[in-house]
Specification:
This protein is of the alpha/beta class and about 250 residues long. It is built from eight helices and four strands, in the order H-H-H-H-E-H-E-H-E-H-E-H. A four-stranded parallel β-sheet has the order 2-1-3-4, with helices on both faces. The protein starts with a helix and ends with a helix.
């Protein structure tokens, strides 16, 4: 099901408004104190809060502008990243309060991220891109471990690993399999990719994007016909489209 990007952007905006409201309330509660030192401290904190809120507002505005223009704005990328990091947990909490499914919010967040990354027009060499897969794509009864070396796959066809190996070989892309966030970070640190195509569930993808530190990540959601974390599936064509998006002209 396609999830609209405006859901996450809207929750970010509500998060900012609530933060501003909380700051205003604190100011009102403390402003009545008569001591001069309290007034000085409060004024200093107020100026600091205004600066933070302006920056966060610019971050949200930057996301909206880039979505509308379908084009990245390099001068706003740092502030949008900062706004995302600070307001993301607040957006999740607000969504929970209003009864919005967490999975739906995470899908919207991933959609926004993919849209912004896709509009960067990176034009990378395929050798600078890494495809990062979850181990649950492998058939659960397979005895050949692929987390250390994906070439241990015997191409039996019971899962999509053989198809993904063929895709990686065709485009000369590095292909790695991770059992979790720790191993995923290890692969990134060792291989130094300039961009990552990550396959995972909503929770793992969103946390991975948050932990990327500005590294461009295109997220592809896996399919879970047997439930989470076992014998999952993925659309190989969608991964190829993500690869072409990152490597245009590369």
């Amino acid at each position: 099901m396609q999830v609209k990007k405006r859901l996450y952007v809207g929750l970010l905006s509500v998060s900012l408004m609530m933060a501003v409201g909380l700051a205003a309330l604190l100011w009102y509660l403390f402003a009545n104190r008569a001591l001069l030192i309290n007034q000085v401290v409060l004024i200093s904190l107020a100026y600091l809060a205004v600066v933070i809120f302006v920056v966060l507002g610019l971050g949200i505005l930057g996301i909206v502008i880039m979505i509308i223009r379908s084009k990245s704005v390099p001068s706003l990328e740092a502030v949008t990243l900062w706004a995302n990091e600070l307001l993301f947990p607040i957006a999740l909490a607000i969504g929970k309060f209003f009864g919005i499914e967490k999975e739906k919010i995470l899908k919207s967040y991933i959609s926004v991220n993919n849209y912004l990354v896709g509009n960067k027009q990176l034009s990378l060499k395929t050798s600078d891109i890494m495809i990062l897969l979850p181990h649950c794509l492998q058939d659960s009864e397979c005895k050949f471990k692929i987390t250390i070396d994906v070439d241990n796959c015997k191409n039996c066809g019971k899962c999509k690993i053989s198809d993904l190996r063929e895709l990686a070989d065709r485009y000369q892309v590095r292909l790695r399999v991770a059992t979790g966030g720790t191993l995923a970070r290890k692969w990134i640190q060792e291989n130094h990719p300039k961009a990552v195509i990550a396959v995972a569930c909503e929770r793992d993808l969103s946390s991975g994007i948050q932990d990327s530190g500005g590294l461009p990540v295109l997220g592809v959601l896996n399919c879970r016909p047997n439930g989470p974390c076992i014998n999952t599936d993925v659309d190989v064509a969608e991964i190829e489209r993500a690869l072409l998006t990152l490597s245009k002209g590369g």
